[in-house]
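Study this fold:
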Amino acid sequence: MCRWLGYHGSPIAPRELVHDTAHSLIEQSRRAAPDMATANGDGVGLGWYGGDPEPALFRSESPAWGDANLREVAGAVRSGLFLAHVRAATGTPVQQTNCHPFRYRSWLFVHNGYIADFARIRRELLLSVAPELFGNIEGSTDSELMFHLALTFGLEGDPIGGLERMAGFVEAVGRAAGIAEPLQMTVGVTDGERLYAARYASGPVVNTLHVSEEVGALRALYPADERWRHFAEDSRAVVSEPLADLPGLWHEVPAGTALTVQAGEDEEVPFRPTQP
């Protein structure tokens, strides 16, 4: 199981979430989940927005906990919108081009999960990517292919709808091949203005996803805690697993739900895969 986080709010150093919290993404990368034999040591990535519409990208096939360059970058950068990811490979090689986030123009994408029996249906899925997008695929993961299928099915104009059509298409192809539960996913995707996330699986077991509560509420809960002072009221973190144990800090995103984090009020709606 991979793990990822997204942040939207006042500019901060990504290191605050990637390294410095009690259960930071780096700490999560060191330990395996209860049903996993190995930790998330198959690569790490950070994508962030600065002054340009196209995001910057750092990716490495090194284990996250030992990558000194990641620590330097995550401490030097200041960004109000970023995605970070630690990878546990599910059958594709450990190489830089297979590390998340994946980028297309102003968009970034991260994924935790898998397409079941990916090798069996990979060719059919690949051939469904729009020809003008195909050259942007650099690696061999199911995650990067899911991103380009979502782009093919209208992600840029309708982010949640594009993700729903991608999920519906993967499920249809998988089930036609006799795969009972084709898809497991939590995904994060952003265009540099909003952060979109979805939690869904074809079967009853769904990977976890959480979003932080309003900063104002946290200040009221923990008035002596200095950590919240430099965060804007609408700052949010979306995470695979909570980064700290503070009661009241995290809201679990329900299974079958899509989330939009933006300036102002967030939106939470049902996630309904559909055939494109």
Helices lie at 15-18, 25-30, 68-76, 118-126, 131-134, 142-152, 159-176, 215-221.
